[in-house]
């Protein structure tokens, strides 16, 4: 199982083993990590699972679909490193990546 490091909104880090096929959002929610609210449950319709990824990590995932891009356009604090973690499906290549969690509960 790939180990994903979640950099939480308070700056602390939590390493979680996330099964291949689940999303970065799933790994956070299943482990009760703060920051990712996931109001829509992974339906790419609420943007409460906002994370920042570096360029090398972003390259491991498919490009964002139009729904994700549109949600990110209207999200405060979004930038070129922004993705919705519900759309980031874990593969074996993801072992060791870092996801910087934006506090979606604020």
Structural class: alpha+beta
> Biggest sheet: strands side by side, in what order?
2-1-5-3-4
Q: Main beta sheet, described?
A: 5 strands, mixed
* N- to C-terminal distance: 31 Å
What's the CATH class, please? Alpha Beta
CATH-level-2 architecture: Roll
Query: How would you sum up the global shape?
Result: globular
GO biological process, one term: P450-containing electron transport chain
InterPro entries: 2Fe-2S_ferredoxin-like_sf, 2Fe-2S_ferredoxin-type, Adrenodoxin-like, Beta-grasp_dom_sf
Family: Belongs to the adrenodoxin/putidaredoxin family.
Organism: Candidatus Frankia alpina
What features would you describe in this structure?
Belongs to the adrenodoxin/putidaredoxin family. The protein contains 3 helices and 5 strands; from the N terminus they run ββαβααββ. With 106 residues, the chain is α+β, with helices and mostly antiparallel strands. It has one domain (3-101): Beta-grasp domain (Ubiquitin-like (UB roll), Roll). A 5-stranded mixed sheet has the order 2-1-5-3-4, sandwiched between helices. A hairpin with a 5-residue loop joins strand 1 (3-7) and strand 2. The longest helix is centred in the middle third of the chain and has 8 residues, at 66-73. It is globular.
Topology:
Blueprint: E1 3-7, E2 13-17, H1 24-30, E3 50-52, H2 55-58, H3 66-73, E4 82-84, E5 98-101
Parallel strand pairs: 1-5
Antiparallel strand pairs: 1-2, 3-4, 3-5
Cofactor: [2Fe-2S] cluster
Keywords: 2Fe-2S, Iron, Iron-sulfur, Metal-binding
Organism: Candidatus Frankia alpina
């Amino acid at each position: 199982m790939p180990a994903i490091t979640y950099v939480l909104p308070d700056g602390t880090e939590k390493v979680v083993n996330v099964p291949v096929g689940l999303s970065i959002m799933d790994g956070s929610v299943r482990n009760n990590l703060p920051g990712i609210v996931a109001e829509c449950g992974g339906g790419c319709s609420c943007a409460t699972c906002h994370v920042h990824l570096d360029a090398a990590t972003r390259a491991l995932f498919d490009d964002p679909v139009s729904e994700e891009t549109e949600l990110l356009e209207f999200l405060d604090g979004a930038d070129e490193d922004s993705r919705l973690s519900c759309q980031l499906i874990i593969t074996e290549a993801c072992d060791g990546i870092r996801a910087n969690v934006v506090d979606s509960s604020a």
